[in-house]
Please model this.
Amino acid sequence: MERLDTELFLFLNGLHVDWLDPVMTFISGKITWLPFYLVLLFLVIKNYKKQSIIIIIGIVLLILCSDQVSSSIFKPLFERPRPCHNEAIKDLVYLPNGHCGGAYGFISSHACNTFALAVFITQLLKKYYSKIGWVMYIWAAMVAYSRIYMGVHYPGDVIVGSLVGILIGFLIVYGVKKTLSRCNDA
Model:
């Protein structure tokens, strides 16, 4: 399984083209998406009004959970080196910006966080915006793929990170929906 993951990584990471390097660096950036997050926040407040405070608390909890599960539980537990730190292949890894990141890469925090948020926002806003799921999941997939392109994650890191993020997203949105329901009943 690990060999297949490495071979798939080397194939995908090897598909780089010069014009795509700044695009993938941009997509992979953390600050890049701030305007997008502000639009999502606006949509939540616009549609949920006073109840949006519960959703914002849910988003904070969501990001804390997904980030901590990926960074503080999975990475130290599995200690799987990032491809760019793997002695056997590090000379074959293409790093568009020359940055490798921390020692361990399993699971991808970017994939976990973006897919958790994609599930959460989709579940809360789909009744108002029928196409929101397409936007959210395409965005999350682009960010997740960018991590392979950038040379810092194996496909397995991204896939498992995405699945963990999806699970966390559903768990947190379930709790938020229950809380909203109780507030409506009160």
The mean pLDDT is 94. Helices lie at 2-13, 20-28, 34-48, 52-78, 109-125, 132-149, 155-185. The two ends are 52 Å apart (CA to CA).
